[in-house]
Design goal:
single chain, about 600 residues, alpha+beta, Phosphorylase Kinase, domain 1, six-stranded mixed β-sheet, 28 helices, 6 strands
């Protein structure tokens, strides 16, 4: 009778007929065949050859299990675990998993290990979990192999080499989760040597088999060129595939693609849509980005109330950028009532989370007493934290602290150090402050060339030169500062005509301009009373050239640029002979100092 069922079920020797297969399974089950009982339950569970009926499925699994069918024992446990056809009961699920496992059912052995690992229906016991995973893995169960690898990766007695071994075994047996985990091992060098090409391969295998997290990671590989050639279009394709399968990270990444036109045409409306989808899944960065969309009208009509609402949501979920943004909102009274106490609160939250802009703001609040009692020492400490993170504004503020003894002992040398750092990072006020220090010899030896250089850098950024150079200006400093500003402005006006002359000389090809970067292997040759001579290789021709830079020009003229032009004009008016080295071009050195170039 049982053999007849198999013929109808598989279409062996007759036409496939699931209704007749069901009929004969039922006959066999009613006659006490335990295997037929289990198969009859499967038909009821899946609606094969009969209407789906989970209660009857449970009933026949139970009969088969009680009659010693180990597959039915595992299936009965699954019914108890998930409440299929009966009330959910984890203790009974554990009992039947254990019975099936003790009878050698491979699936049950793995399921029993899962119960021990997670404390389902029994007390949590990682040693027992590992034991049963090992048993199932050694019996060839690929899911157990993957789970055993996870135990070796994260559990007691971590062994990354063994974790890698079992991930690899499971992946080779087509366990999709193991393919993903193996890719992670190769990507991060866990239990094996780092290999981005192999990582890419296994992400691809897992992605092609439907693993949405692998799809997202495969997209990242294409986006960054990890283990494969960079391809933004393919990155977009896989982000989209993963997003459609509800991978939260991919949903967020897809929104970024649409926002920036990465791998697809820029579409702010679609970007907003996908940010919104990510927000529905509580993706914190997406919440912040959604707020930015509302604030700036990106893909949606501007809405300040909604922007504030979502910034607040993100901030409450520990998004550092949102915390800083809320501080700005409250400090400036943007779209909400101004509240300096709340502004300070959010700045401090972000600052404690290492946001350098917030650290600088907290320093400023302590310095000025904004939303908190004034405390110059704390102001100094927070400026220092932000400055050490390379924030130019904080570096300048730290320089001011050292310059004026604000919260720290006065130290002009340290003030110069931090002004220099800030100036090199592009802070225009620090550039101006540094130029004054070099001009007046404040905390450093006087150097008019460097003073001029930093003043020029500041003017290029349209710096406003107010008497706020020092927070507390000592006696006599006011006059020095006013004198410096007068000198700089005079120098600026006088250099306009000189700069114009050079522009015209280049424009009408009286002289060539040669990039300083094209001059290599410079060697000093000689120094005279008014100039330095060096030899260099001009990389465009591979010829040696002579470079002359004027020095000590204050003895000739008040302005170095004028002195340079004076000598250059003399060269351009000479009737060259074999005895005179011909001036070929001019260049601009590291400190914006002109020098002229001649062939050897």
């Amino acid at each position: 009778m049982f053999n007849l069922v198999v013929c109808y079920e598989n279409g062996e020797g007759t036409e496939k007929d699931l209704e007749k297969a069901f009929y004969w399974y039922q006959k066999a089950a009613e006659n006490g065949n335990k295997d037929a009982m289990n198969n009859l339950a499967i038909y009821y569970e899946n609606g094969k050859g009969v209407e789906k009926n989970l209660e009857k499925a449970f009933c026949w699994y139970q009969k088969a299990a009680e009659n010693g069918n180990k597959v039915a024992m595992n299936n009965l446990a699954i019914c108890y675990e998930n409440g299929k056809g009966t009330e959910k009961n984890l203790e009974k699920a554990f009992y039947w998993y254990q019975k099936a496992a003790e009878n050698g059912n491979e699936a049950a052995i793995n399921n029993l290990a899962v119960c021990y690992e997670n404390g389902k229906g029994t007390e949590k016991n990682l040693e027992r979990a590992s034991y049963w995973y090992q048993k199932a893995a050694e019996n060839g169960n690929e899911v157990a192999m993957n789970n055993l690898a996870i135990c070796y990766e994260n559990g007691k007695g971590t062994d990354l080499a063994k974790a890698f071994y079992w991930f690899q075994k499971a992946a080779e047996k087509d366990c999709i989760r193991a393919m993903f985990n193996l890719a992670m091992c190769y990507e991060n060098g866990k239990g094996t040597e780092k290999n981005l090409e192999k990582s890419f391969y296994w992400y691809q295998q897992a992605a092609l088999n439907g693993n949405e997290v692998a799809m997202n990671n495969l997209a990242i590989c294409y986006n960054n060129g990890n283990g494969t050639e960079k391809n933004l279009e393919k990155a977009f394709y896989w982000y989209q595939k993963a997003a459609i399968k509800d991978c939260i990270k991919a949903i967020f990444n897809l929104a970024i693609c649409y926002e920036n036109g990465k791998g697809t045409e820029k579409n702010l409306e679609k970007s907003f849509y996908w940010y919104q989808k990510a927000v529905e899944k509580n993706h914190i960065k997406a919440i912040f980005n959604l707020a930015m969309c509302y604030e700036n009208g990106k893909g949606i009509k501007k809405n300040s109330d909604k922007a504030f609402y979502w910034y607040q949501k993100a901030a409450e979920n520990e998004n550092i950028d949102a915390q800083f943004k809320l501080g700005l909102y409250y400090e400036e009274g943007n779209f909400i009532e101004k509240d300096e106490v709340r502004a300070f609160y959010w700045y401090q939250k972000a600052a404690e989370n290492e946001n350098k802009n917030a650290q600088n703001k907290v320093g400023f609040c302590y310095q000025k007493g904004i939303g908190i009692e004034k405390n110059e020492f704390k102001a100094f400490c927070w400026y220092q934290k932000a400055a050490e993170q390379e924030l130019s504004d904080a570096q300048k503020n730290l320089g001011l602290c050292y310059q004026n003894g604000l919260g720290i002992e006065k130290d002009e040398a340290k003030a110069i150090y931090w002004y220099q750092k800030a100036a090199e990072n592009g802070d225009k006020e620090a550039q101006f402050n540094l130029s004054v220090c070099y001009k007046e010899g404040i905390g450093i030896e006087k150097d008019e060339i460097k003073a001029s250089y930093w003043y020029q850098r500041a003017t290029e950024q349209n710096a406003q030169y107010k008497l706020r150079f020092f927070y507390k200006i000592g006696k006599g400093v006011n006059k020095r500062l006013e004198k410096s500003i007068y000198w700089f402005k005079k120098a600026e006006n006088e250099s306009l005509s000189a700069n114009k002359w050079i522009e015209n000389a280049l424009k009408y090809e009286k002289v060539k301009f040669i990039s300083y970067k094209e001059l290599k292997n410079a060697e000093p040759l000689d120094v005279g009373g008014f100039g330095k001579i060096s030899k260099a290789t001009w990389t465009k021709t591979n010829n040696y050239v002579i470079c002359k830079q004027l020095i000590n020009t204050t003895y000739i003229k008040n302005d170095m640029l004028d002195a340079f032009i004076h000598e250059l004009k003399m060269h351009l008016h000479l009737n060259y002979s074999d005895r005179i080295i011909r001036c070929f071009g001019i260049s601009l050195g590291n400190l914006n100092i002109f020098f002229y170039i001649a062939f050897l």
